[in-house]
């Protein structure tokens, strides 16, 4: 009996032992496969780990109709492609936001100072709050996506965004904060 079939049968007896065997048998090859798509070993590790977690948590071993090895490689391929597409969307949104900021801010020294003040104010936010703010504002993620990615509640995301806006409003006065809000709401309502 081949290794894949042995592991699938072991899942019926002892899921934890089977999962360890699955991980030890396939991790290295799946990692090398993911690196071919992503060209980044750290991201590839995350993708492969996510596939293993999904496989175990959602008990995918109960639903495999093709070979285990084929299933795992397909799962890694699809997750890697999804990651690449997601990264491209984030980069595209970031370019749009940067273009809008540049269009709304002329090259006068005063306005350049305002743009710098925006970045300084954002960078002065507490680390967790800044991360949530940039994931939503610059990366274009939805509140629920951020909550899922950071393993926190959506209410925590909402509170942190509210606090981020409050802090920015206090630190940026007049046109700077208004420009942030205009760009943000314009982008949100276009979705």
TrEMBL record:
Alphabetized UniProt keyword annotations: Sigma factor, Transcription, Transcription regulation
A molecular function (GO) term: DNA binding
Residue ranges occupied by any RNA polymerase sigma-70 region domain in the UniProt entry: 22-90
GO biological process, one term: DNA-templated transcription initiation
InterPro entries listed in its UniProt record: RNA_pol_sigma-70-like, RNA_pol_sigma-70_dom, RNA_pol_sigma70_bacteroid, RNA_pol_sigma70_r2, RNA_pol_sigma70_r4_t2, RNA_pol_sigma_r2, RNA_pol_sigma_r3/r4-like, WH-like_DNA-bd_sf
CDD domains in UniProt: Sigma70_r4
SUPFAM superfamilies (UniProt xref): Sigma2 domain of RNA polymerase sigma factors (SSF88946), Sigma3 and sigma4 domains of RNA polymerase sigma factors (SSF88659)
Domain of life from the UniProt record: Bacteria
This protein's record includes keyword Kinase: no
Boundaries of every RNA polymerase sigma factor 70 region 4 type domain copy: 116-168
Family that this chain belongs to: Belongs to the sigma-70 factor family. ECF subfamily.
Record protein name field: RNA polymerase sigma-70 factor
């Amino acid at each position: 009996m081949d290794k894949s079939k042995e592991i699938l049968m072991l899942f019926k007896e002892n899921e934890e032992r089977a999962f360890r065997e699955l991980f030890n048998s396939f991790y290295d090859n799946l990692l090398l496969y993911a690196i071919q798509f992503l060209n980044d070993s750290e991201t590839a590790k995350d993708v492969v780990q996510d596939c293993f977690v999904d496989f175990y948590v959602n008990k995918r071993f109960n639903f495999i109709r093709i070979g285990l090895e084929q299933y795992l490689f397909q799962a890694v391929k699809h997750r890697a492609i999804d990651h690449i597409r997601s990264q491209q969307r984030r980069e595209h949104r970031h370019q749009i936001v940067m273009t809008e900021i540049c269009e709304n801010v002329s090259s006068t020294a005063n306005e350049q100072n305002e743009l710098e003040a925006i970045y300084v104010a954002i960078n002065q936010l507490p680390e967790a709050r800044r991360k949530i703010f940039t994931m939503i504002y610059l990366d274009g993620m939805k509140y629920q996506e951020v909550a899922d990615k950071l393993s926190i509640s959506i209410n925590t995301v909402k509170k942190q965004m509210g606090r981020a806006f409050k802090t920015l409003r206090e630190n940026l006065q007049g046109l700077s904060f208004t420009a942030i809000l205009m760009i943000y709401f314009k982008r949100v309502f276009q979705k």
